[in-house]
Design brief:
This protein has about 120 residues and is an alpha+beta fold. The chain has one domain (about 5-15, about 30-120). The chain contains four helices and six strands. It has helices spanning about 5-15, 50-60, 60-65, 110-120; strands at about 40, 45, 50, 80, 85-90, 95. The strands form two sheets. Strands 1-2-3 form a three-stranded antiparallel beta sheet. β1 and β2 form a beta hairpin. The longest helix is centred in the first third of the chain and has 15 residues, at about 5-15. The radius of gyration is 14 Å and the shape is globular.
Length: about 120
């Protein structure tokens, strides 16, 4: 499998796991338990990507048991949090969404808030 496909698969996997039901509340905002770490209710990430160790530390063993960490070819450096914020470690940016525009480039507005929380920039 190629990397872009795996990145998209990871995004779809995360998005599918957090699809709200008709009676569900909107996903809570991401939390930053310590500088350079950003978590939603499923995973935690740092400037290297989604982290099994940080997920276990801040969200517990149950969250760290996520099958995402068992997938050997998944690119953990591009990810979408439950609230729709997309982060790319290679670009060192977080965006309001993960979608592409007609020009083939990411179309989501840059999220200064989450970029600063995760990358300190």
């Amino acid at each position: 499998m190629n990397k872009p496909y795996l990145s998209i698969s990871l995004s779809l996997l995360l998005a599918a796991s957090v699809m709200p039901t008709a009676h569900a509340k909107q996903p809570a905002a991401n939390q930053s338990p310590t500088p350079g770490v950003l978590c939603d209710r499923y995973v935690c990430a740092d400037d290297k990507g989604i982290s099994h160790e940080l997920t276990e530390k801040y969200l517990g063993k149950k969250a760290a048991a996520n099958t995402l960490f068992a997938m050997p070819d998944v690119d953990l450096t591009e990810f979408t949090f439950a609230n729709g914020i997309f982060c790319d470690v290679k670009e060192r940016l977080c965006r309001e969404d993960r979608y592409y525009g007609a020009n083939g480039k990411r179309s989501g507005a840059i999220s200064k808030k989450y970029t600063k929380l995760l990358f300190g920039e």
